[in-house]
Amino acid sequence: MIFQNKQVAKDIFYVGVNDRQKAKFENIIPLPFGVSYNSYLIIDDKTALMDTVDFHQGEIFIDKIQSQLQGRKLDYLIINHMEPDHSGSIRLIRKYFPEVILVGNLRTLKMIEGFYGETSCLREIHDEEILSLGTHELQFFLVPMVHWPETMMTFDRTEKVLFSGDAFGCFGALDGAVIDTEMNVEKYWDEMIRYYANIIGKYGSPVQKAIQKLSGVPFETICTTHGPVWRENIQKTVNIYDQLSKYEGRNGVVIVYASMYGNTELMAETIAQGLAEAGVKEITIHNASTTDASFILRDIFKYKGLIIGSPTYNSELFPEIEALLQKIELRQIKNRIFGCFGSYTWAGAAVDHLSLFAEKMKWIMIDKGVEEKQALKDNQYKACLQLGLKMGEMLKQSFQQEK
Ligand code: FEO
Fewer CB atoms near the end CB (10 Å): N or C, the chain? Predict the structure, then answer.
């Protein structure tokens, strides 16, 4: 079939695909709105493809490329990132275009051999090296650990297009349009934060280095590997990645709790009431037993205030809360104002565990946590309201200091 590919800049065409079939990205993160694997083809004296797509969509991908090449050969495949959601069709590309030269840095080339057994027609490039396609000049910027060690970005100096790999990407398939100027992008912002929190969240420092490295690069379009092409939202997109990678939460609170029979849950509701009375307008409550952790992590990255509640379960934290703490620690989430609460039947332990965790994370702790024996009663009910009020005050102070 002949595809009519979307042109995203002069000589540059979108040949990516949507995936609305995969239930979980990396078999761990739910995809309620799907995901796109973006790839771009540059048609110049030489032709160059930017990354490939998940191999499940390989045949459609090949048709899109051939539609654009119209019988010409593919000269280069530029590989910005080797995770198989982007590299998965390399062998297919080689099958259809046997002479194509695979372009990457040293780490990339080793991974190409490791994943796909390819050892010939490879071209190693170095940081800031330039490859000319004729009119288009491609410059490569190595940005290790955004998201894997080999990650790099490619800058088309002629059209001022940055092919950024995972960076500045988001979950959410492309619903028809490709470029942000041609769609309502509101639905993508939360999915960008969820993407960042779950995929790149551990690598705040490398993301910061990458943003600094890009500060002198005059890009006017960002072509990521996931989500829309950014043109009119470049500043907003870069700001989101900048703030998330600096662990700068916004003015709001996420309450995460687990509850076996509703007692800890009632404490969560009461704390939220205290927060609202303190004037906090952005409050999100998640039940860790029913909400997937990827959404909870999204909101933990989003907000500066974090309150976690757990029943004491076999003298430990409730398992879902324990698992969440492990995910938070893995990502080394910093700069949070923290409160905790919990309930127990015969001997309390959850609040102690949560307090120790906050100490380990070097978060600012709101007094000691609130812990109730069995059902919530007057004294601890008031303590829950107070916890919410105190969090509200501390957030207010914190954001006033920043002004
Ligand atoms: Fe979209 Fe790290 O791969």
Answer: C
